[in-house]
Design brief:
Elements: H1 5-9, E1 47-50, H2 54-67, E2 71-73, H3 77-86, E3 94-98, H4 106-116, E4 121-126, H5 131-140, E5 144-147, H6 148-163, H7 166-169
Parallel strand pairs: 1-2, 1-3, 3-4, 4-5
Helix pairs in contact: 2-6
Length: about 170
């Protein structure tokens, strides 16, 4: 039997059959990078993160650096309170939680922070298979709960939106 037709299909990675790709899954459309914010040397951090995972810390820091946004990582509620006091009257606009954190208990800490910081958004991220944890996080006051992949994909837009000063966002 002549199998020479297979050579023509060898570069095709969809199981050797042309036209077998699932619609909507074949092409990855890159998100455009948002424009960086103007540099403000005197700016306080408006975004804080309870993130243990060093990979995600590095990813958040690098994205923030590209956007000229200051992000600080904290290890405890007291650490966050001290940093907020250093900022004076300016409250954080965003607190990021790794909902699988080992250093804090996000499910018990989120309601405490939401009662103190009413206008602060709280975003949590977790593994996409943790449906129960996602539901609990919403119940205790987490404004947005994202799978790790969606959090990574939307990180530039989130940091830019929450990292801008009040006068820049209201214009």
């Amino acid at each position: 039997m002549d199998h020479s037709y297979r050579a023509a299909l060898a570069g095709n990675n969809n199981g050797g059959r042309p036209g077998r790709q699932r619609p909507g899954f074949s092409t990855n459309y890159p998100q455009p990078e948002p424009d960086p914010l103007p540099v403000r040397e005197d700016a306080n951090s408006r975004i804080f993160g309870f993130v243990d995972d060093l990979f995600f810390q590095a990813k958040i820091q690098e994205t923030a650096r590209k956007l000229n946004v200051k992000v600080e990582f904290v290890k405890s509620e007291q650490d966050l309170t001290d940093r907020i006091k250093q900022n004076g009257e300016e409250k954080p606009s965003l607190i990021i939680f790794d909902l699988n954190s080992n250093s804090v208990k996000p499910i018990s800490l989120i309601p405490k922070l939401k009662s103190k910081l009413k206008k602060t958004s709280v975003i949590g991220f977790l593994s996409h298979v943790q449906g129960d944890l996602k539901q609990k996080a919403h119940e205790v006051g987490c404004d947005m709960v994202l799978p790790r992949s969606a959090f990574s994909q939307n990180l530039p837009q989130l940091l830019r939106r929450h990292g801008a000063a009040e006068d820049e966002t209201s214009g």
